[in-house]
Amino acid sequence: MDTDWCECVNVQQYLRLMKTKASFSHSCMNAWLSINTIGGLIYFGGNNALALMHLVGNGNNTSRLFPVSVLFPLEAEQSPIYELLVIILFLHAMLVTYTVVFLNALISTLVLHVSGQIDIICQDLQNISENIPYYGSSGQTVGMLIERHNKVITFSKNMDKLFSFMALMQVGWNTLVICFLGLLVVISVHNDTGVVLLRGGFAYCNIMMDVFIFCFAGEYLSHKSRSLGNAGYECSWYKMSPSHSRNILFFIMRSQKQLTITVGGMTNLSLETFTSVSLQIFFLIYNYVVLCIFPN
């Protein structure tokens, strides 16, 4: 990435394009950070905030709840042990939340960086078709374009190696968490506890947003890789010399293989995958709720 930015500094048009991608990535990071912070505060601090409100209102609230359900092998409800454990558990939970946010921001930043490089290649193809005559000296320009394309492919493969296992763990772990959230929803419905239902709803939205970010990043990367082949086909490759047009045709053929992010090497991350996973999770929770409410 550092090399790509250094190469873009000398060309104002490329630098403006990469700055736009970086600015959009920064905005997405701030949005996800705000949403997950609100969701984390509601989910992990809702019980304590409600207990504090009861204490202020009634003055005799004896329930001492923790941010998460946990069992200690000691008397943990005595001060100052209780306050210390509440702070530690809350900070740990928010740290995990922010770790997921930064992971989502990282994959988004890398995908946007690749998309910026792809846009630069498309602009180079357009410039070649507009400025290079039939027997002009376009060899160096075409060679630089192919070299940049090879770097994009290598970068995408390394990104897939980095996030493939992470995406698999993300989908598997989030599915398990959503099942337990469904159990909390069933308990809240039976006990008429709206706070638990609200916490579960926010947690579910945050989890599905995390899965959506991964799937949308994979879909966006595939879409941008398809645009490479379209840009190569739309350029005036037939007006170039035979050797240069042959290189462009090889470029078009190589662009037919889409750049993707996989889930453990089993399936590609895409909006179709997100829809499939969402429906499976929905029917799983629905069947579980029905079995809990109507066991017979």
Automatic annotation (TrEMBL):
Keyword Secreted found: no
Name of this protein: Odorant receptor 22c-like isoform X1
Pfam families linked to this entry: 7tm_6
GO cellular component, one term: plasma membrane
Places the protein is found: Cell membrane
Keyword tRNA processing recorded: no
Molecular function terms from GO: odorant binding; olfactory receptor activity
InterPro entries: 7tm6_olfct_rcpt (IPR004117)
Transmembrane residue ranges: 81-107, 165-189, 201-221
Keywords, comma-separated and alphabetical: Cell membrane, Membrane, Olfaction, Receptor, Sensory transduction, Transducer, Transmembrane, Transmembrane helix
Biological process, per Gene Ontology: signal transduction
Source organism, top-level taxon: Eukaryota
Membrane topology of this protein: Multi-pass membrane protein
